[in-house]
Amino acid sequence: MRDRLRFAAFGGGLVVLLGAALGIGALVGDPSERGVEHSGVVHDGSYRSTGLSDSESGYTLADLSAPASPNRAGLLRFRITGPDGAPVTRFAVRHEKPLHLVVARSDGAEYRHTHPTMAADGTWSVDWTWPAPGTYRVFADFAPETGVGSGGLVLSRTVTVAGDAVARPLPPAAETASVDGYQVRLQRDSGDLRFTVTRDGRPVTDLEPYLGAYAHLVGLHAPSLAYLHAHPQGEVGRTSPGPEVAFHVEPPVPGPYRLYFEFAHGGSVHTAEFTLEFEQLSTAPSTSGGGHHSGGEHR
User: Fold this and answer.
1) Which phi and psi angles does 151 have, rounded to 5°?
2) CA 189 to chain centre
3) Which of the residues 56, 101, 139, 247 has an alpha carbon 20 to 30 A from that of 75?
4) C-beta of residue 143 within 8 angstroms of C-beta of residue 248
5) Could you give the CA distance from residue 226 to residue 21 in angstroms, rounded to a whole number?
6) In which element (H, E) is residue 140 found?
7) Which of 108, 42, 99 is nearest to 260 (CA)?
8) Is 3 exposed, middle or buried (0-12, 13-18, 19+ CB in 10 A)?
9) How far, in Å, are 14, 92, 194, 215, 257 from residue 248 at the CA level?
10) Closest C-alpha to 220, from 77, 134, 105
11) Cα–Cα distances in Å, from 259 out to 17, 57, 123?
12) What is the mean pLDDT of residues 267-287?
């Protein structure tokens, strides 16, 4: 499985889970200081969280460290502390992992979704090399085994990597995208986003399960740095494994997003990217039930 940074590849599924945390803004500042609201479960069972704070519901993303300069191998480390100030060491397994780590540069040009390992003392770590200077946002998407009810949390902090950063403009919107020899088409149907995967002009009908689903979708808003994380409609073993994967998406804030569509095929994970404008927020009432960040195994 490929687990690396992707550079401006384009591309693009089944119901969702939404969060909100990283978007495409200037390479300066900490969006957690902008007063954006935090999390909530929406009416269709999706989870939304701006993810722009390092602390929520008594839990904190703490002791974050990483290499200070690009092209220098090291470790990215952090801990999650609980309301009592002690490191959290028990997490609910969601989509096959106790914690999902998403890291992207603030212009959205570089993106990684990976899964660190946790030591007995609650320190999470993963081998890490920054590919370029700039300001990056580090998101921890998790749920403690107990203590946050039916919801999960998305916490984040920024890391500045030394050097002259050249911000890349948000690529223009397009209906099709290519990555690793695959072509992906995005169709928008009201609140649904439908991605169709082909290769060499043929539909891909044998997508492989990846983290308990046939695809995942992460969206980064510009310029607020709001993050959404969606899971597809249907389920592995009961839903057709391609070529179409559909998501019902209700972003936390309107505006342009860079979408990262992750799917597995041929033994590797591929990340295709789109730019898409969401014009307005849903006005549907929210509830506290179900969804991506409900307890137990579901992500």
Assistant:
1) -100, 165
2) 22
3) 56
4) no
5) 4
6) strand 134-142
7) 108
8) exposed
9) 8, 24, 9, 13, 15
10) 105
11) 14, 28, 30
12) 76
Count other Cβ atoms within 10 Å, centred on residue 173: 11
> Residue written as tokens 């073993």?
237
The strand pairing partners of 166, in sequence order, are none
- Asked if the model's pLDDT at residue 112 lies above 80, the reply is yes
Are 22 and 251 contacting, i.e. CB atoms less than 8 angstroms apart? no
CA-closest candidate to residue 102, choices 89, 121, 115? 115
Which pair of structure tokens corresponds to residue 14?
């089944």
Tell me the pTM.
Answer: 0.79
Cα(264)–Cα(95) distance, integer angstroms: 14
Q: How many CB atoms lie within 10 A of CB 168?
A: 16
Scanning the structure block, which residue is given the tokens 């983290």? 211
CB 135 within 8 A of CB 28: yes
Token representation of residue 212: 């308990």
